Every structure is written in C-alpha cells, then in structure tokens.
Amino acid sequence: MRIQVDLHVHTLASGHAFSTVVEIAREANLRRLRAVGIADHGPGLPGGPHPYHFSAMRFLPRAMEGVRILRGVEANLMDAKGTIDLPRELAERLDYVMVGFHHGCGFNPGSARSNTRAFIKAMDNPRVKVLTHPGNPAFPVDVPELVAAAAARGVALEINNASFSQNRAGSYANCTRIAAELARVGGPVCLSSDAHVATQVGEVKDAWAVAEAAGVIEAQVVNRTYTECLKFLGLDEAEMAGK
Ligand SMILES: [Zn+2]
Ligand SMILES: [Zn+2]
C-alpha cells in the first residue's frame, strides 16, 4: 500500500516542528508522493501560527520540488459547540480543513459523549474534510456514533501514523476499534504521517497496518491516489495544475 498524498504535515510555522516547505516537498518527491498537504496547527495552539499565516498560504507555489502543494490547516476544537480556531473567511481560502483535539487550546477533555458532540458539530462546517487522531485516548469518543456521523457527511477519520510510536500513548486499541467500525460501514479513511520533521513525510506504514488488520480496504483510503484525493477534497485537478 502506497499513498500518493500526505495531507497532514507540519512546518516550522507550527512552532514546535522543524522543517520548511521546501524540505518537506523535497522529501515528498524522494518518497514518490504526488502531493503534500501543509497543515500547520491553528492559531489557538500555544506557539501556533498567527492567522496571517493562513491567508499568506496563497503565496505558496502550487508545485515545488516536483510535487503539488496543498494548502490546509489542522484546526483546533475550541469548545463543545465545535468552534474551530480559524475564522470562516480564512478557512474558505484553504484547500481543506482538518480538525482535532489538542491540549492547551481552551477545550478541556470531556466525556466521550461531549467530545463526540463537539466533533460532530465541527463537521457542520463544509470545509472540514478530516478529523485528526480521533483515537487519542485523552479525548475519548463514542466510536459507532462518530464513525456513522462522519461517513454520513463524507468526512474522513484519520489513522495517524505518529500515534503508534511518538505520540498519544494508548492509541492502538482505540484506533483499531475506529478502523474496524470504518471497515464495517465503509466510511472514508485518511492515512497520515503527522510529520513534524521532513524525514517523516509520507510515512504511514504503522497506520496502514492497523487499518488493514481491522478490515479497511484500499478503496476507502481517500489520500491513496492524487486524483481521488482531489475529488474527495472537492478540488478541480485542472484548476489545481494551473493555479
Ligand atoms: Zn494533532
Ligand atoms: Zn498534526
């Protein structure tokens, strides 16, 4: 299983990551990705980029080092109403929005019920295409309810490669449950590196191992091919090539 697009990569702009867009694009090219999604944390995360970062993403060339550059964000859920930390007008200028729970952004982990509600409310925003690391044990969710709601809205749930080695200890069991439920209902799945340094770009081996063992099939993976990924994000391939 190879992916052509990694939608979840952090640059120096996140405040706690270590590579530039050029370094990331170069690594993506070496790993034979066709596109890489720059998805820095939203402004609500301590040390995160200023909102101007997201309006300035229009300055990024559409191709660098032989790969396409997609403009995204990993926005933070700020409250139980599903509010994210990027104003709508800025979110609308990006190619896609990912949303996840992170500590220190104003949202204190609640019950599985309230966390699930917040995720579902966030999906009311049509720019939201992926929920990041929903298997994080620090923010438990109601798995069947969340998977059903995401599938109904065409939003992908992420299986995050970094969750199995570097981050969010205890994710394995939750991710396995989420993947099994995604397999059962046939919902969209995003495999991501969540790279915070260029050498990790495109690395999804552990995430795919978990997803595949739980019964997810390749056709469910929204970022497997460039063409299918753009279609999933609602982007026009010809327009992307020209912009
Ligand atoms: Zn995250
Ligand atoms: Zn991330």
Task: Give the radius of gyration.
Answer: 16 Å
Residue-averaged pLDDT: 95
Q: Name the shape in a single word.
A: globular
Please identify the structural class as seen in this structure.
alpha/beta
* Helix/strand order, N-terminal first: EHEHEEHEHEHEHEHHH
**What is the CATH class designation?**
Alpha Beta
Q: Give the N-terminus to C-terminus distance in angstroms.
A: 30 Å
Tally of structural domains: 1
Largest sheet: 8 strands, mixed
CATH architecture call: Alpha-Beta Barrel
Total number of helical segments?
9
Summary keywords:
binds zinc ion; alpha/beta; 17% strand; 243 residues; TIM Barrel
Question: Could you outline the blueprint of secondary structure elements for this entry?
Answer:
Elements: E1 5-9, H1 21-30, E2 35-41, H2 52-55, E3 63-64, E4 67-76, H3 88-91, E5 97-100, H4 112-122, E6 128-131, H5 143-153, E7 156-160, H6 171-185, E8 189-192, H7 205-213, H8 226-233, H9 237-242
Bound molecules: zinc ion (ZN) (2 copies).
The site of one zinc ion has 5 residues, from loops.
